[in-house]
Amino acid sequence: MKTFLRYTAAFFAAVLLSSTLSSIFSTQFVIAGLQSVSVDIPIGTRISMTLEDFAIFKALLAVISACFLIGFLVASACIRLVGGHRNAWYMLAGASALVTTLLLMSWQMQLMPIAGARTFFGLITQGISGAFGGLLFSMYTNKLKEAQ
Predict the structure, then answer these.
(1) Residue 103: pLDDT band by 50, 70, 90 thresholds?
(2) Do residues 65 and 97 make contact, with C-beta atoms less than 8 angstroms apart?
(3) Which of 127, 115, 129, 98 has the alpha carbon at shortest distance from 30?
(4) Which residue among 7, 64, 96, 109 has its CA within the 20 to 30 Å range from the CA of 102?
C-alpha cells in the first residue's frame, strides 16, 4: 500500500510539473507571436499574462493525467519487454503522450486546444514539458525500486 501511494505521488508530481511547464510555455509562445507583429509587451504584462493563463490549469491536469497514465503504462511495458534506460523510456512516453493527445484533440476539434502549441516549435515545447514530467516520474520511481 505504501508503494502504491508513493507511485501515485510520483505520478501526480509529474502531472503537476508538466502542466505547469505546459501552461508557461504556451503563454510565452503566444506572447512571442504578439511581439512578432510589433506589439510591445512589458515584463509586468508578460508575468501577469503567464499567471492568468493558469486558469486552464484544471483542464491541463485532467488531459495530462489521462495521457500520462497510458504513456507511462506503455513505457513500463517497454522497459520490461525491450529493456533500455528507464529515464529515456519515461521521457519519450511523457513527450509523445502529450504531443499525441494534443494532435488528436486538434484533429477532433479542428483547433489546437493550447494556443501556444499552434506552431511546430510551440508543439515541441509541449513535448518538452511532457518529457520533464516523464523524467521526474522515472527518477522518483527508480528511487523507490532501489529502496525495495
Answers:
(1) very high
(2) no
(3) 115
(4) 7
Q: Report the residue count for the chain.
A: 148
SS3 119: coil
Return the C-alpha cell found at 132. Answer: 520533464
Share of the chain above pLDDT 70, in %: 96
* 54-97 per-position pLDDT tens digit: 888 888 899 999 999 999 999 999 999 999 999 999 999 999 99
Residue holding cell 522515472? 138
What's the pLDDT score for residue 54? 82
Rounded to whole angstroms, the Cα distance separating 23 from 137 reads: 19
* pTM greater than 0.70: yes
Cell 508557461 -> residue: 24
Phi, psi dihedrals of residue 113, rounded to the nearest 5°: -70, -25
For residues 89 and 78, the answer to whether their CB atoms sit within 8 Å is yes
CA dihedral sign of residues 11, 19, 65, 118: negative
| Domain spans, the chain | 2-147
